Records
---
Amino acid sequence: MPPDTPAQRPTPRAPEVAHAAPARKLATGRRGPADPVKSLMHRHRELCERAVDPLEIAAGLEAHGVTDRTAARYRHRDVFSLAEELFARVPAVAGEPVDASCTPARDIETRAAWSLRALLPGAACLATFVALRLTEGVLDGGARLAIGTGGGLLALMGLALALRTGPLCADGRSSGAAGLFGCWLLGYVLYGDALLHQVLSGGPEGPWDITPAPLLGLAVAVAPAAWCAHLFSVHAHRKLNGSRALEEFAAGVRPLLFAAVAFFLCVLGGLLYLAGFGIGAGGSQVGAAALGVLLLLARLLTVHGFPEPAATGLAAACAVEAAAPALVLAGRLPGLDALARPVDALVAAAGTGAVPAVACGAAALGLLTTATVALSRASAHTAA
C-alpha cells in the first residue's frame, strides 16, 4: 500500500475542523449580505426599471415610506443618493422611445391649446349674459329662459373640456361625487343667497332672484386657475431637480403653493369686482372668492393624486350651505327654535353671504393645510 498522504492521515484536530466549518458558514449567514442595497433593489425592482430618472425612484421610495433616516441604513446620506445608485444598478425596461417632436415650439402650441380651452367657460357665460341683457324687454320669459339654460349648458361643457386636458386634468382620479359637490356649490352661487333670504323671511314663496355676477367671475377665473396650477407644477419640478434631500424639497415647494394660491386669489378678486361692476351687485363676493380658492385647492390635490381629501373638503362646504336653510326651517317646529339661532345670528351680523363665506372659507383653509403637507412630498410631482 502507498504511504498515507497528508490528506489521508487522520489528525487529532480533524473533528474540530469538521465542526468549525459549518459553524463558520452559519456565522457568515447571520451577518447578512455585504450589499444592503441589494434587498431594497429587489423589493422595488419594477419601480427602478420603469423610472426615467433617479428623481422618479426617489419619489417612489418616499411614497413607500423610505426617508432620509432610512437611507442612512443603506449607507447613503439621503433618499436622492440612494435613488441614484438604484437607477444606475437596475437596467431600464425597453419602453417607448422619446418623442423627438417635443420641441419648445410644440410646447408653446400645447400651452396655447389648453389656455384657449380654459377660456371657454368664461366666454360662454359672458355671451349668455350679454344675450340676456340685449333681449331684455324684447323676448318673453320662456325664450330668455331657453337662452339662459343653453348658455349654462355650454359653460358646463366648456368647463368639462377645460378639465379634461392641461394642468387641471386629473387623468380619471376625480370622482363623480366631487363633480356633484362642485355643481352644488356653483348652483348656490346663483340661487343660495336669495333662497336663504326667503327662508329667513318666512318662505320660500316661489321663484327667487339669481345673482349671476359671482358665477361669471368664477367662470372667467378658470383660465388663471389653469395657469396657476401650471406654474406651480413647473416650479415644483425645478425644485425637485435642484434638491438633494426630501426636507429641502418640502421647504422649497411650500412657498410655491402659497404664492400660487395668493396670486389666484388676487386675480379672482379683480375678476369678481369687474363682473359685479359690469352686471350689477348681488351675491357674496367674499363667498365666491372663498369658493374659487376651494375649487383650485381641490383640483390641485386631485391632479397630484389626492382625490379623497379634495372630495371631503367640497362635501363639507356643501353640508354647511345645505344645513343653513334646513336649520332655519327646522327651527319653526315647536321647541326647536334654538336650531335656527346660529344662522340668524350669522346673517344678522354679516348678511346671507356670510354662509357661503364661512362654509367655503373653512373648507378651503382645511384643504390648504392638507395641500401644504401632501404637495410638499416628492411623490406628488411624478407621473403615476
---
Amino acid sequence: MTAELVVLLVVVVTALAFDFTNGFHDTGNAMATSIATGALRPKVAVALSATLNLIGAFLSVEVAATVAKGVVNLGTVSGEDLLLIVFAGLVGGILWNLATWLFGMPSSSSHALFGGLIGAAIASIGMNGVEWGGVMGKVILPALLAPVVAALVAAVGTKLIYRITHAVPDDTKSKGFRIGQVGTASLVSLAHGTNDAQKTMGVIFLALVAHGSISPDADMPFWVKLSCAVAIALGTYLGGWRIIRTLGKGLVEISAPQGMAAESSSAAIILTSSHLGLPLSTTHVATGSILGTGLGRRGAEVRWGVAGRMAVAWLITLPSAGIVGAICWAIAHLIGGLPGVLVVFALLIGLSVVMYLRSRQEPIDPSNVNAEWDGGLTPAAETPFAGSDADADADHTTTRNT
C-alpha cells in the first residue's frame, strides 16, 4: 500500500466523519419543532429522520457536483496537493461543527465545510485557488437570502393557518396539526438528505479526482453515495439533542400550527435548492422558518437574544472554519507527506475527545430536551419529557448557559 493511497483512505474516513457530524448537527432542522410540540417522541423522531435522510441521499447529485467542481479551482491544483487541501478543509469543518454543537448553536455545517476548503485552498495556492464565482453565486448569496425568504414564507403561512382555523377548537386544532407535523417533518428530513449528504459526496469525489482514481467528468460512484448516505443517517440517529433543544425551545415558544408552517416552509425551500444544485444551509432555512412563525403569530414570544447569538455564529462560521483549515494545511505541509497528514488526523481525534468529555459534564438527552427554557441551554431543573425513557441513550452534549 503506497503512502498516497493511505492518505486517500484517511481523507475518505475524515469525509465520512464530517458527514456523521453533519447528521447529528442538523437533526434539529427537521425534528426540533415536532419534538417541542409533542407531535413525535424524541427517539421516534430521530429514527424517522435518519431513515428519510438515508433515502434522500440517493435522490439527487446536483449539489454534489457543485461542491466537487464549484469551490476549489481544479485548474490550479491536483494530485497530492489537492488531497491535502481537501483533508485540511474537512478537519476545519469537523472541528467547527463540534465546537458549535458543544455550545448548542445551530450553525451551518455546509458553511463550515466550505470555509475549511476555502481556507486550506488559500493557504496552499493563494486567492486564485478558489472558484470565487461559484462561492459567491452558490454559497454566499443563498446564505444571505435563505433565512429571510424562509422567515417570510413561514410568517405568511402561520398567519393564514391561524386565520383559516380561528373557529376550530384549540384541542382539535392542536391534535390535527400535530398529525400534519409528522408529514411535514418527514419531508424536511427527506429534503435534508437530498442536500447535505451530497456535500460529502462532492468532497470524496474531489479526493478521488486528486488521487487519479476517476476523472473530473466521471459519474458519482455508487459506493460513495451509499457510504455518505449511511454516515449521515447514523449521525442523525445519534440525535444532536443540544441543537434540537435550542431550536425547539430556545428561539420561539412554538405551537403545533406554527411547527407545521415552519416545516412546510423549510421543506419547500430545501427541495428547490437541491433541484437547482445550490448547497444551501438547511440550518439557516430551518432557523429562519421557526423565527418566521414567531413573527406570524400575534403575541408569540421570540427570544431575540438567542437569535442574535445564532446570527453571530452564522457570520463567523466561514472565516473561523477557514482559519482552522488553513492552520491544518500549514501543519501538514510543514511536516510533509503522510506523517503530516497523520499528525493533523491525531490532532483532530484529540480535540474531538476533549469536546466530547466536556459535553459529558451536563448532558442534554431525550429526558430533558423539552424542559422549559430558563435563559440558557442547560435546564435549571431536569424535567423528563412525558412518555420518553428517562434512561434513554444520551447525546452527551453540554454547554454553559448561552
---
Amino acid sequence: MDLDVFVSAHRAEWDRLDALLGRRRSLTGAEVDELVALYQRTATHLSLIQSSAPDPQLTGRLSQLVARARSAVTGTRRASWRDVTTFLTHGFPAAVYRSRHWWVPTALISTLVAALLGWWIGAHPEVQAAIGAPSELRDLTRPGGQYETYYSSHPATSFAAQVWTNNAQAAAMCLVLGIFLGLPVLWILFLNMLNLGVGIGLMSSVGRLDVFLGLVLPHGLLELTAVFVAAGTGLRLGWTVIDPGPRTRRTALAEEGRAAVGMAIGLALVLFVSGAIEGFVTPSGLPTWARIAIGIAAELAFLAYVYVLGGRASRDGATGDVDAAERSATVPTAA
C-alpha cells in the first residue's frame, strides 16, 4: 500500500467525519446516515493501515476518530447487573469450556508430575536430606507439625483472604505471561507441582500421606483446577502467537487476550470459593471424610457449571470475548 496515495484519497472523508462529529447534536437525518457510513469506512481504513502500512501518527488520529464516531453511533453504555449475569452464565463458562482441550491435558500431566515427584522424594532419603535437616523435616511431618498447623496458623478470615490473593496472582500470571510462548506458564506450573510433590513425598516417607491428603483435598481440588484452567489458557495464548490460524496474529491475540482477561475475573471468583474452603473447612473439626466430601462437591459443581452451562453457551456462539459491537473494526481475512 502506498500510504501517501491512500491518505490523499481518503483525507476528505476523515475530515468530513470529524466535522460531523463536531456538531452531531444538530445533524439532519441525512447527515446522521452519512456519519454512520463514514464511521464504517474509516474503521475499515484504520484496519487496513494497521495491517498493511502501520504509521503511528496516522493510526493514532484514526483510532481517536473511530472511537469518537463509535461513541456517537452507539451511544455511551454502562455496565449493568445483566452484564454480570451474562458473564457468569455465558461468557466465563463458555471460555473455560472452549479451552478444555488445553487445561484438561495440563491437569492430567501436572498431576502425574506431582505424583512422580512425591514418589521420588518419598523413596529416596538422600533427596529428603537435600530438602532440609532431619530436625526441620520432623517439624514439618510430625503430628501437630507445620503441615498440620499451617491451616490454623491465622484467623480463618485473614487466612482465606491471603490464600485467595496468592492464588489469584498465580492464576493471573499464568494468563498474562502465556503470551511469551507459554514458557513462564510451564515454570509456574512446575513450581506448584514441586511444592505439592514435596509435601506428598515427605509425608508419605513417615506414613502420614493420608493426613496430608485429608488436609489438601478439601480445597486443593478446586484450587488446582482453577490453576490448571489458567495455565491451559495461558498456553493456548502462547500457541496463538505461533499459530494464529486463519485470523491475523493481531486479531487472534486481541480475541484470545480479551477472553483471558475475562477468565482472570471468573477464576478469581472460583479461587475465592477455594480460599474460603481452605480458611474455614480445612482447619475445622469436621471428620476427614466430611471435609473431603465438601471439596469433591465443590469440584463437581464447578465441572458441571463448565460442561453444562459452558457447553450450552459455547454451542450458542459464546466465546468469552466481548460482544461484536464492543470490538475494534476489522476487515475479513482469507481462510
---
Amino acid sequence: MLHLSAALDQPSAYDAGSYVELARLAERGGLDFVTLGDTFARPGPDALAVLSRVAPATSRIGLVPTVTTTHTEPFHVQAAVATLDWVSRGRAGWRIDVSTTEGEARLFGRRHAAPVEALWHEAGEVADVAARLWDSWEDDAEIRDLPTGRFIDQDKLHYVDFEGADFSVKGPSIVPRPPQGHPVRVVDATEGHARRTAARYADVALVRAASPAQAAAVREQLREEAGEFGRDPDTLRVLASLLVDLGDGEHAAEPGHGGGGPRQTAQGPLYRGGPVDLAELVAAWHADGIVDGFHLTPAEPRRDLERLVNGTVALLQHRGLFRTFYPGSTLREHLGLARPANQYAGQYAVTGGAS
C-alpha cells in the first residue's frame, strides 16, 4: 500500500480558514494525513490548536501537528494529543520534535539548552510515558450510569508510575483512552540522534533522502533497530520527505530524475518539475520497496498542493497505485496499523470500586 501525506505549513498565515481549505483539498485526494509544523524558534500559530480547528471541518484525513517534547510537560502534551484524537474521532497524530537552541530555552527560563542526543533520549521517554498514560484508562472505564451516579469504574484506571531521567509521572491521565488507543507518533528520522527514538517509538518515520539508495539504507536501518527493540518492523511506515515545486508545469525530466529532482538543497531534497514526473518518481521508489510512501511539502502551498492532488495523485489513482477512497475512518486504518492493546488491562487499578 502506497502512503501519501502533505505539509500544510504557510509562513505568517494565522487565518484558520486557509488551513481548513488546504486540509480539505488534501482530503479530496485521499491523502493519509497532513502535518503542520511548530517550533519555539520563530513566531507562528500553535499547530495543535490549528488542527483542532481543522478537525470538525474535515472527516477522514489524518491530522498531525508538531509538538515539541523540550520545555513542555509530558502529561500536558499527551492529554492535548489525546484530546485532538477525540475531537477528530480517531484521526490524530503527533510529530515529535525537540528544541535545541539557547534562545528557545530562555523563553521558559527553566534550564539551558542540552545536547541533541540528550534531547532525543528525553523525547523517547515522553513518547513512552504518553503511551502509558493513554493506556491508563481502559476502553470501558467510563460507566456513565445516571441512575447510580457512577461515571468511572476506578478498577479500570491505572497508575503509570513512570520514572525517567528528567521527569516522573504518576498518572492516570485526565483524558479517557483515545479512539485510536494510541494516536499515531511521527518522527523525522533523517538525523542519527532521532533515529533510535523513531525505531523504538514511531509509527511513521520521515526520511529526507535525495537518492533511492540513501532512502533505502535508512529504511533498512530503522527496520533492523525496530526489530532489536522487540517490534515487528512491518508496523513502522517509512516515508520519504520531499520539498516539491510544481511551478514548472510539464518541464521535461532529466534522465533518471523526474523534473530534475530530487536535488539536495539547504531545505532538504527538492523535486522541481511537473506532476506527471513526480508521479513517476513516487511510483518507481515505491515499486522498488525503497520507501512505504512520501511526505510532500509544497513550495507554494495552495498552487503546489492543488497540482499534487489534481495531477500526481489523480495519475497514481488512475494507475491503481493509490486508493480512490478511505477504507476506514481513523489514521491508523489509513496506515494499515492495528489499534494497540491496552498494556494495563486486567492489572491492579488505582483504588478499586466505582465512583
